[in-house]
Amino acid sequence: MTCRSNESLSKLVEEARPYAASGRVADYIPALGRAEKDDLSVAIFDIGNECYYAGDYKKKFTLQSISKVLALALALSDRGFDYVFSHVGMEPTGDPFNSISKLETSVPSKPLNPMINAGALAVTHMINGRDNKEKIDRIIRFVSSFLDGAPVTCNWETAQSEMETADLNRALCYFMKQHGIIEGDVEDLLRVYTAQCAIEMNCFDLARVGAVLALNGVDPETGKQIIAENVARICKTFMVTCGMYNASGEFAIKIGIPAKSGVSGGIMGAVPGRYGIGIFGPSLDEKGNSIAGMKILEMLAREQQLSIF
Ligand code: GLN
């Protein structure tokens, strides 16, 4: 499918772009610190089989936390509902995505949900595969299945950059290992997790992934069922309750669509039955969400009454 430039979407982008000035690009992963703060692009994949974009929609970025939704879908397909949710909870947290505090206080000790780092690490740990390579290959192939088999790449430089600075995630892993939530080599798990987070795509591809979720797991172009309907439903529910970290409540009130953000500045939206949305704007607010990206969604949601509530 070709994606066409759209004038009213371009206007939204230009209206939203100035908001980026008040944020910062993430630099705790050094490779992300090189992003251009002003970059802003959006693609909307209409389930009726049209696609619109504005901005540099071909620019690639890494998925970071957006990958947590896809890893969850794969783990659920690999292990089933009961196994996955005996190791990770279903409740939102009011804490930052990388917080360790609730891990210590929840009884029995398990991460509260699959969208915070602790939960995502536990989910990645559940993905089948004999070794790191097989696990990473399976994740990449799985992501590619959302794009009708188009090649998907991992940005190894970003993955390595995160490996070098992932001490907080290491701490979460060691804590979970001590409490029997994960087992095995922590560095191995981090290698798979950082590779998963460093999967890259442009906002058109991201919109297409969102469209599959919006259509209950069905590829809007081929009609193929990519993931089970129930898995798509669980993913979208977590996107609503935990997708924007500890800003998910405010996001649900102001925008009201299932969405997942990542610290690279990406946001994936899935408007049930209507749209998949991919946004890239690397300037983040203090909670780690793309400022201009959220502004675009806010304007779009108002204009087109996208809220599911
Ligand atoms: N790879 C990042 C991390 O673990 C993902 C976090 C995010 O996008 N919020 O810190």
TrEMBL record:
State its Enzyme Commission number(s). 3.5.1.2
Which parts form a coiled-coil structure per UniProt? none
**MF terms in GO:** glutaminase activity
- UniProt keyword Cell membrane present: no
What catalytic activity does the UniProt entry give for this protein? L-glutamine + H2O = L-glutamate + NH4(+)
Enumerate the UniProt keywords alphabetically.
Acetylation, Hydrolase
Say which domain of life the source belongs to: Bacteria
Q: What GO terms in the biological process aspect are recorded for it? A: glutamate biosynthetic process; L-glutamine catabolic process
Q: Which family does it belong to?
A: Belongs to the glutaminase family.
Which HAMAP family does the record associate with it?
A: Glutaminase (MF_00313)
What is the protein named? Glutaminase
